[in-house]
Amino acid sequence: QISYASKMGEECFEDWRIMQRKISPDWVRTIKKHVLRFKAANTFGVFLQLNLGHPEPLKGAPEGRYSVRVSGNVRLIFMPICKGKDIRECEEIKILGVEDYHGCKKTRYIP
Fold first, then answer.
1. In whole angstroms, what is the distance from residue 86 CA to residue 23 CA?
2. Where are the beta strands (DSSP E) in the chain?
């Protein structure tokens, strides 16, 4: 199951044409693949085992936030929503946005 941090983010992720007006079409294709992988995996543990897009915890961000690569510096930021203690058993992902989080300046492309 996928949820979104903002209404604007939900609109972009539910209608890829809206997203293409905001960011590069190449990025949109990659993001779409990641979202389909989220949906295909039954749990967060299964998604991590696939290791597609190099999922990793974000350094310097609040605990529980992860990213997958969209391009060299651009990442799809998300957070597994867990009801139990084992993060690998999470069945919901909350998408927080798309941003360039490298260096001192962060650029948020989709909130």
1. 35
2. 2-4, 56-57, 66-69, 74-81, 92-100, 107-110
Distances (CA, A) of 101 to 11, 77, 78, 82, 90: 22, 10, 13, 24, 25
Pairing verdict, β 66-69 and 74-81: antiparallel
Q: How many residues belong to the chain? A: 111
Among the listed ranges 47-56, 64-73, 99-108, which one has the minimum average pLDDT value? Answer: 99-108
pTM: predicted TM-score of the whole model, two decimal places: 0.85
Pairing state of beta strands 2-4 and 92-100? parallel
**Spatial CA neighbour of 98 closest among 39, 2, 30, 15:** 30
